[in-house]
Amino acid sequence: MTVTRDAPPRAYDCRLTVAPTAFLLVSFRRLPVWKAIARGRMRADGRRPWLAPRLGRLVATP
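^ thats the sequence. predicted structure below, dont judge the formating
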């Protein structure tokens, strides 16, 4: 991570706010994304929040 003073603000497509345990459970496919959202453990915002459900496909499971 780099923090720069007086840097212009960046526009993110999708920003996820996720509890660490919910992130692990969703990424290892032990908890459906919709349940994490319903329980308030996961939230997506930004310009394109509909990209959030792709999270499970981006993380490789063992």
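The radius of gyration is 14 Å.
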